[in-house]
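Standup notes, structure subgroup. Blocker cleared on the DQA input:
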Amino acid sequence: MTSTSPTRGTLLILNGPNLNLLGTREPGIYGSATLQDIEDQAKAVAGEAGFDVRCVQSNSEGALIDAVHAARENAVGIVINAGAYTHTSVALRDALAAVRLPAVEVHISNVHQREEFRHHSYLSAVVDTVIVGAGVLGYELAITYLARTLPA
Ligand code: DQA
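Run returned:
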């Protein structure tokens, strides 16, 4: 029997608070792409590399942590834009450290050119790679990184 489904496993594409508002949220900083656009593109790029995607967005810290925990069972890698929780959440950092899956932290904007409080990330030390300031292309770059580094 032939199958057309991807075979390399699932990538969790995890977006945190306020990222559901992309497209209308501060377009001068975040651009005009919507979260749906990002997720559609992620699906296409991951699919070309043989991965499925699971897209989760939540404004709640606990729901993001639950999604990271679930990834232990149902994903082979994580792309995470934790939004403002990046700069505040020890709990999300601990979740990423606990699951020990390959993970890439993405920020649409260049957080280092912005307010001081955005310069520190609790997550960066427990992920493999950080991509900042590449706009929504960052998600594509993150998926490409995982596709190149995960087992074929
Ligand atoms: C962000 C940067 C964060 O500082 C901010 O709180 C966000 C979005 C980004 O993608 O540039 O919500 O993660």
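Discussed briefly. Residues 35-48 form the longest helix (14 residues).
Next: hand off to the docking folks.
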